[in-house]
Amino acid sequence: MNSKPIKEQPSKENSLSTHAIPNSTQAIPNSTQAIPNKKTALNSEDRSSQMTKQLTNQLTDQLTDQVPSQLTKQVPSQMTSQVTKQMTNPLTNQKGLLDTQKFSHEYKREGAINEQAQLQAAAVQYKTKRERLLKEPERLGHYLGYQDLGSVHGEWIRKIWQDNLTEDRLILAHRNSYKTTAIIIVGVMWYLLFHPNATILIARKEYKGAAAMLARIRRHYLAPKVASLYSQLGIAEKFSLTVAKENTLSLSTKTVITQEGNIEVIGTSAKGITGRHYDRIHLDDVVTEHDRDSTKERIKTIRFYENLKSVIKPGNAITATGTPWHKHDLYKKFGHVDRYPLGSINIKAFTAEQIKAKQQELSPAMFASQYQLTHISDHHNLFLNVKRSSTWDVNARTLGHIDPAFGGTHTSAFTLVQFTQSRILVIGHVFTGHIRKHYEKIKSLIKKYHVTGTYIETNADKGALLYDLQRQGLMVWGYHEAMNKHIKIMTLLYQYWQHLYFHKDCDMKYIGQIEDYNERALLDDAPDSLASLLMKCGRTFLAYLDHPTSYAATKQFNDRPEQRLHWVRELERGVVF
Is the model's pTM score more than 0.85? Predict the structure, then answer.
C-alpha cells in the first residue's frame, strides 16, 4: 500500500518561535516543501526530528545575516568553543565515562608543558643574572661582604681575568687599595663561576701568605651563601668542595679530571712545579722590600717569573698585581702596565688629612714608591738637623736596647729612651768589637740612668747573649727581629724624627751614624737600635699625643713602687709603654 506524505500541522512550539523571531517565516517560504518526499516509510517521530534539524540550520543562517559583522566574528566563535567543550570531552569513552588512561596521558602532557615553560622562564632569569654579574664583577664582592669595592675594582677584575689575554699584564696600585681582595679573593671566585674547569696558580713572595689567602677563599666557598649563589645563577643545584687542602682547592663544578686543582698557591721559593700546567697564573705582591735591598733577591724573583712561562698553557698570559720597590725589579719585565697611584681612585680610607699624615710618617722615597708608584733616590742623608737636650729625669721610666756585634769592624749600639709629655729623649753609645768586652760599661749605664728593662735582638746568636746578661742580674728581654732593617729605619725614625731629642751625654759616634745613614751606609747599628726600640715602645707615646689627658694618670700609676713589678711583667708579656 502506497503511503501518502503526511502534511505536518504547525505545533504550539513552532508558532511561539515564529512570534519570537519576526518575519522569520517570511524568510523561509513554504518550509514544509523544502523537505523532499521519500519512498521509504518513516514514522512521525523520525520525520519530525529531521524537519527540526533542517529548520534549525536554516534559522542559524538567517540570523547570521541579520547580526552585525563584529558580533558575528566574536560571539559565534566563543559560543562554539564553549558548546564544543561541553558536548565533546576527549577524556571520556563512548559510554560517557572518564577514561583513566586518556586522563593520565593528558595530565602528564600538561605537566610537561608547564614544567618546560617554568624552565624556560628560569633560564631567562639565570641568563639575566649571569650577564649582569659578568659586566659588574664588584657585585660579587658586595655579596661576599666587601662593601668598599667600587667600579674600579670591577674594572681590575675584568682586566686581569678576561678571556683571550695573550700579553702579560701588570696592575700597579698603591698600598691599601684593596687590590688583593678584589683581584684575588673576588676575582678568582668570579672567574670560576664562568670557567668551572679552569686551573689557576696564585703565587706570592712567601708561601705562608699565599696559603693564608687561599684559606680566605676556602671560607667563602664553605659558606651557605656561595652554594645559594650557584643555585640562583643556575650553575649547580648542589655545590661543594671536592678537594680542600692548604695549597689547593677543587670545586664540585669541575668536570674535567686533571692533576691540578681549580686553585693552587705557591711561594717564590717553590720547587718542583714542572710537569704541571695551568690555564691562568697570577702573581700577587711577589716584589717586596727584600727586592729593594738585595740584587740577589731581585734576580731570584725574575727567574721565578721566567720559569712560570713553562707551566702556563700555550696562548695564555701571566698577570700580576703589586707595588713597586725598585727601579730594576721584576715589574720592569711587563710590557702592559696599568698604574693607579694614590688619588687616582676613590678609597674611603684615604681622606686629605690621612694622606698628609701618611706623608709625615714615611720618608719621601718610601712614600713615592708605595703610594705615588714612582722611584726617587734616598741615598742622600735624611736625618739631619739633630735636636739636642740637656734634661733627663732619673726617676722617670727608661727603656734600653742592645744591637750586638760579635767582632771585626762592626759596632754594637746601646740605646736609652725616655718619654716626656711632648718629647722622646735619647741617649746612645756605640762600642767597637765584640759585645762581651763592654758588659761592664753597659751595666754601669743601666745603673746610672735607672733603666727599667732592656731589649736585645737574638737573631745572630739564638739567645746566647741574652742568657749571659740575665745571669749577670740585668733585666733583659730577647726578641726575634723579622722586619727589614732599611724599611724599619726609614719608617720609624722618619715617623718619630720631629719628637726626638738627643741628650748631651749621647755619644757623638752614635749621632754620626744616624746623620750619615742612607741605604748603602756601612755603619747602621745606631739607627737600627733606635728604630727597634721605638717599634717596641713608641706607640703609646703617639697615643698620648692624641689623648694627653691620660698621661698624668698613667705616669702616677707606674711611678708607684708597689706597681713596678707589675709593670715589668707587662713589658715581658709584650705590653708596650
Answer: no
